[in-house]
Design a protein that fits this description.
The structure holds two protein chains of two kinds. By secondary structure, chain A is mainly alpha-helical. Chain A has one domain. Helix content of chain A is 80%, strand content 0%. Chain A has six helices and no strands. In chain A, α2 crosses α5. Chain A is flat and about 80 Å long. Chain B is mainly alpha-helical. Chain B has one domain: Amino acid/polyamine transporter I. Chain B is built from 20 helices and four strands. Chain B has a four-stranded antiparallel β-sheet with strand order 2-1-3-4, with no helix packed on it. In chain B, a hairpin with a 7-residue loop joins β3 and β4. The two termini of chain B are 38 Å apart. The chains are: A mainly alpha, B mainly alpha. Chains A and B meet through α2, α3, α4, α5 and α6 of A and α10, α11, α14 and α17 of B.
Amino acid sequence: MSTHTTAAPQMPLALQYAEVAIPGIGVGLIAGAFAAGVAAMAGLPAVQIATIATGLGIPLALLGAGYCVLLALGKFGVGAVGPVAFYWLVGFPLARLTDQYLVATVLGHDEILREPLLSFLAFQAMLSMGFAIGFLWLHERIAPHLLIRIKDHNPVAAHLVERYISQATALEERRVNAKEERAAKRGRRRGSS
Amino acid sequence: MDSSDINSDRPLGRDDLSGTDAPDAPVPAQRGPSPAEAGASDSGATDTGASEAPEEERYWKAGRLEQMPIRALPDAPPSVHLLGPTVFLVALGVGMGESYMWPRLVLLFGPEIRWLFLVGVSLQAVVMLEMSRYAMATGESIFFGAARVFKPLMWFFFVTAMLVYIWPGHLSAGASAFERVSGIPWQATAVTGMLLVGVIFTMAKVIYNLLENVLSICIGLLVVGTSVVAGMVGNLADLSSTITGMFAFGYFPQEALSAAWFPVIVGSIAFAGPSGMQQMWYTLHLRDKGAGMGTHIPRIRGLAHAGEQETMPTRGFMFDTSKPEEMAKWKGWRRWVTFDAFVLFWGITMLVTISFTVLAQASARFDPGVVDVIRDGERDAALDAMAASFTAAGSPIFGTVFFLFISLIGLNATFGLFDSFSRGQADMTYFFVPGARRFSMSKLYAFFLWGVILFGIGVLLWGPADGPSGILDTLAFLSTFAMGAYCVTLLLVNNLMLPKPIRPGILTNAIIAFAAVFYLGMLFYSLFAFGVVVS
């Protein structure tokens, strides 16, 4: 698979990153707005639906977009679990805290959290591992399809597609090298015995 | 049983349908394929018997059935991966056991009872590894392996699958949950769902690819969604007790040893992770994924594309275990499937069940009356009570979201079970029912798929969804008995039908033997001590 730039004027860099961020925004919105969408089905007042959508959906979508941008900038490895888990270890509790604060403020609740702040954050941080894996799973299922589709007019996406390909190639090379090393080691052992 | 290697003077191509007679000139040791042979493995039957016939076809003899030609093992993919056939086991495994049965036991006996869940899921992870051993080494399903040991063993699984999985009762929980959310009668949802599954699988070019995509999205949504909702209704104490409870080894309250609860606990352990025959079907998904020697076997196509279905070879293949480079590839495949078993299957099952247990504990905190309803054991009432407690605690959305999760689990199970059942029955029929090879694998698959769908619709509309009440106990018994039986089958198949270098080690054999004793022992103890099968 090769990438190429078109003669047409390039879209602004910010837009290129925004386009690459669509899968992350999508997954974040799906996750955050899961409850909000159902709130509509359950016939809740519009204010409550909007609050839930804004309070949880927007932060998760923004953080999802942040992940994609950092991925495009090369701060995260393609499909790497560790950095994503760390990212959401911080991001998920913050999104939940924003949600709690916004819901309490808009609906006029006196109590923002049902438990002490530290317990709340620790609990959310522990759950963030599940969220991170689910996020990555969905992202890796959706993003490559979109990136391949937009790479012709979006150099950031094209670069990311190249990284996906080169990562697959590098993994393959690493495996071949490891195999050769093992074979050489065996050969040396045979030679010495 | 002697598993020696055999040479034959008659080359068998991969699509050769006539070769059921075993070549009969034994040689003492297995040898590697010639370059011509290795090339042939990628290009199929026409090459093997073409102008440059291989000098000497080598075979691996396993049991009394047709011997397996030696072919090259493909290179293993990187062991760390995100997507693969595990998605089927997770989709099938994360079902009622995780979302209802174990949360229920936690509410009744405390989170310490979860150590039994940990044992159950860990055993299933090892079973999964051992199922993959035979499937990846030969490209054959475990059913074929069972037939190589003793054909009636395979027919037992064929009959058990027909008896246990033909009833559409498994659809009722998900469809009932959807009824709570949407008001649409559950029978209508279930019938529509079944027809939808039938049409989608009929139109799919390669069924495996479609199903892996659909289930991956569903499982991803489930993992993300349960984390979010557990984060909204649970607290640190719920999560801490859920996790620490998993390590309370040996905890077993007196009440759990009663006739009322012991069968429930046995059933819950059997439902921890994939239950019944789901692990056996995993070997068919591995094959269609092209894992190990499965790469030499064509994939099943939807009925609409049956014309493009490649002819199935009449048996699997073996790789040359005497060659170090082939064994290095094999180790790569074992690393790949170990990651699948322990990180994806074990890890994701744990994450989802932890979230569901947190939800259950939260529901009991919001409304202590939930525990009484759950104790009564009526599943729909218990799910209602849990949803209602979330509604009371926060807003109606929590209850609705809870029902949506149950619906999503039901959808996963419908997709996964219908595909798996049809795949397993078509496999056994194709290879072992005389005359069945006149039909392609995709036609047999479609026959079983539409058979179970039409029967299911008929039963949903006019009959008992779980099966006739008179045989319910028998079905429950068979489902759990099959789990003990497949552990015994695994021991036999992997130790007698595979070449020595790739047979399981003592520790693995001990764990599988323990699993057999564990499942069968508890089943029979429940039966003889309390006169009740699992429930």
